[in-house]
Structures are given as structure tokens and as C-alpha cells.
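Is this the right way to post C-alpha cells for a design question? Let me know if I should format differently. Anyway, here goes:
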């Protein structure tokens, strides 16, 4: 009698196999890199605390259920969600990340396209999509997406030193860079340049082409300013910065107000600071955007030089441990991914702190793990999860060669 073939539902996995998979995932979680997670979590806790301090005047001016009184609670909720996302990414099979790089590009373009159609303008930039009570900023999420996409593209290292490889990287980056620049979100778009450059450099790209491109890119920004290609509010921010570095009198009540108040807050912190919740610039509401872009100024005023040194030490340890993860793997995709994420964090920290100290024009770029903002915090935890993925996953070669 011929055997019949059953085409019903696929057979269920046996309990033994399911138990083995769960044990494997639990083993991965035990291997999470504490050297990376600890400073990130400490920075997140510090961020929640100083968001509370910076928003005290909001809490006093609103009811107990008002908009201002819950900034720190909302940040804590996003931190819990970010932890779950980070754990999920850490145990995700790495082949899903490396093999699906065209899908990550398509996903990023889809989000940015949705912003163009349905976007909401905040502080002069059409960068947000409203999802009920939550405003999502897709340009933030595009930063780690681009890291994954480029690491997936560059992992094969075919003719990586050719001009065509560099142009391909520029083309992939441009799919994200141009729409974000058009929003206009100058700060976020600026993060892409060193991030992509570092990944291409580590992949073995042609140094001459890279230096030439870097010089052209450096010349492009002052050219855009001189030719009037920037938005009015961007021109004002650059004018304020140029006035501060040239020694001209800054308009302390107009366009230079943000920078002046931030520098005043940082300078008045002294050696040990004024104490938690005692900063005059923040508590008396002189400092604008104190719980978001200028959270570093709040921290510096209330903790002083000692607190700032500890703060920078945490960021240094975080970045150094990330680079240690990159050094410990020879698999191309893994190393490129971690280098991209580490460069993303370093660039944001450098720009945000430089902006707060008056050393760079104001760009509206947040401080990773610290500034208030769900999109920013979730993006930071996505980056953390990708680094953790490399640290805990078995390193199977997914590229053409190893480093």
C-alpha cells in the first residue's frame, strides 16, 4: 500500500529541543559584556536623575499629572523598553542582521519617506511622526540601521580599495543622509560622516580616496554657508558660534542666548558643583532645552569639575570596552558593526558636549543615554544591543575573509 504524504501543519518542536534553545539563549545572556553594559546603565540612571532635576520647574508650574512633571518617569519607561530591545538584539542570530542588510536600508528609507508625508515639525525640523501620545524620530533609528547595512555590504571586502566601493558606500549613506538633511536635521546627518568613514577605513578602503573625500567634505560646509544654502536658523547658529570664537560681543538675549546660558551654567559649577537640584541656571529656567540638548550643562553646574570628570570617564570606559569587543573578533561583519556603533556614540558625545561648552555650533543633537527623548534613548539601547550581540554570539565567518 503506497504511503500517503501529509501536508498539514508542520510538526511541532519537541519539548527537549525547545528547552535546549532556551538554555542556549540563557547562556548568551550570561555572557553579556558587563564592561559595556555597566557604564551605559549608570549613564542612563544619571540621565533620569538629572532630567528630574532639570524639569523641577515644570513640575512646580504644572499639576501633579501635568506634562512637565513626568519627564523622568517617561524616560525611565523608555529605559525599561530599551533594555528589553537590547536583550532581544543580543540573542538575535547574527546571520539575520548581516544577511538582511538590503531590508534594513529599505526599512530606513520607508521610515524617512513616511516623515516626508506624515511628518510633524518640532523646533524647525520636520523629523517626527506622531504615534498616538508618542512622537517617534526615525532619523535617530536610521543611525544604527546604517551601521548594520554598511557592515553587511562591506563584509565581503571585494575590491574594497577601489573607487567604486567608496562610491557605493556614499550612495548607501546618501539614501539616509539626504532625506535627513532635507528635514532639516543637520546634527543627525553630521553623525553619519565619521561613522561611515571609520567603517570604510577599518574595512581596508583606499586611504587616498578617503582623504580626498574628507577634504572635499570639509570644504563643502563653509561653502554651503557662504553660498546661502543653509536654512535661516542654521545660519544664525553658525553666526553665534563664529561670534563667540572671534571674541565679538555675543547677543546674550537673542540668537546667542542658548549658548551663553549653557556656558554660564557650566562655568558656575566650580570644582564640586552647586548640588543636586540647586543649579540656578536650570532651576530658575534661564537655560533652555535643559532636559534635552543641554542636559550636560545642568549636570556640570550641579556636580562641578569632579562630576564632569566622572561623567567623561564613564563614556570613555563605554567606548573603550566597545572597541575591545571589536578587537576581540576577526569576523568582518562583527568588527565593522561595532566600530560603526562606537563611532556613532563618540561623535554624538563630542558634538553635544562641544555645543554645550561653546566650542561648536548648536545642532540640537542629544547626549546618548542621558538626554530626554524616547527615540534617542531607544536608539542608544539598539546600538548597545548590537554590540552585545557581537560579544555573546559564536563568531561564524559571514564575510569573504577575516581581519
Amino acid at each position: 500500500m503506497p504511503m500517503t504524504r501529509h501536508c498539514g501543519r508542520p510538526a511541532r518542536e519537541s519539548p527537549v529541543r525547545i528547552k535546549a534553545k532556551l538554555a542556549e539563549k540563557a547562556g548568551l545572556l550570561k555572557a553579556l559584556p558587563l564592561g559595556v553594559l555597566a557604564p551605559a546603565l549608570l549613564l542612563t540612571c544619571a540621565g533620569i536623575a538629572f532630567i528630574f532635576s532639570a524639569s523641577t520647574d515644570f513640575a512646580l508650574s504644572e499639576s501633579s499629572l501635568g506634562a512637565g512633571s513626568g519627564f523622568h518617569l517617561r524616560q525611565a519607561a523608555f529605559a525599561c523598553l530599551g533594555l528589553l530591545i537590547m536583550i532581544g538584539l543580543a540573542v538575535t542570530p547574527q546571520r539575520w542582521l548581516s544577511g538582511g542588510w538590503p531590508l534594513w536600508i529599505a526599512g530606513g528609507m520607508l521610515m524617512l519617506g513616511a516623515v516626508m508625508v506624515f511628518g510633524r515639525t518640532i523646533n524647525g525640523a520636520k523629523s517626527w511622526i506622531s504615534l498616538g501620545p508618542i512622537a517617534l524620530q526615525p532619523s535617530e533609528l536610521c543611525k544604527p540601521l546604517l551601521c548594520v547595512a554598511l557592515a553587511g555590504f562591506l563584509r565581503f571586502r571585494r575590491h574594497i580599495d577601489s573607487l567604486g566601493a567608496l562610491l557605493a558606500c556614499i550612495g548607501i549613506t546618501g539614501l539616509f543622509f539626504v532625506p535627513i538633511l532635507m528635514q532639516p536635521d543637520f546634527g543627525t546627518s553630521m553623525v553619519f560622516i565619521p561613522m561611515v568613514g571609520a567603517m570604510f577605513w577599518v574595512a581596508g578602503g583606499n586611504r587616498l580616496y578617503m582623504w580626498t573625500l574628507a577634504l572635499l567634505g570639509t570644504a563643502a560646509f563653509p561653502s554651503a554657508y557662504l553660498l546661502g544654502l543653509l536654512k535661516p536658523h542654521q545660519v544664525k547658529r553658525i553666526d553665534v558660534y563664529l561670534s563667540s570664537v572671534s571674541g565679538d560681543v555675543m547677543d546674550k538675549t537673542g540668537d546667542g542666548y542658548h549658548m551663553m546660558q549653557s556656558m554660564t551654567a557650566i562655568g558656575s559649577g566650580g570644582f564640586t558643583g552647586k548640588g543636586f537640584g540647586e543649579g540656578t541656571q536650570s532651576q530658575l529656567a534661564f537655560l533652555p532645552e535643559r532636559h534635552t540638548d543641554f542636559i550636560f550643562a545642568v549636570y556640570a553646574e550641579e556636580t562641578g569639575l569632579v562630576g564632569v570628570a566622572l561623567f567623561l570617564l564613564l563614556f570613555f570606559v563605554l567606548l573603550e570596552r566597545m572597541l575591545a569587543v571589536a578587537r576581540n573578533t576577526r569576523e568582518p561583519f562583527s568588527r565593522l558593526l561595532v566600530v560603526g556603533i562606537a563611532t556613532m556614540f563618540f561623535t554624538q558625545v563630542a558634538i553635544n558636549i562641544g555645543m554645550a561648552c561653546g566650542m561648536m555650533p548648536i545642532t540640537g543633537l542629544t547626549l546618548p543615554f542621558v538626554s530626554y527623548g524616547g527615540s534617542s534613548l531607544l536608539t542608544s539601547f539598539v546600538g548597545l544591543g548590537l554590540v552585545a550581540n557581537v560579544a555573546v554570539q559564536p563568531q561564524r565567518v559571514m564575510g569573504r575573509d577575516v581581519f
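Format looks fine. Someone answered above. Worth noting: The chain has one domain: 71-392. The beta strands are 120-122, 125-131, 134-136.
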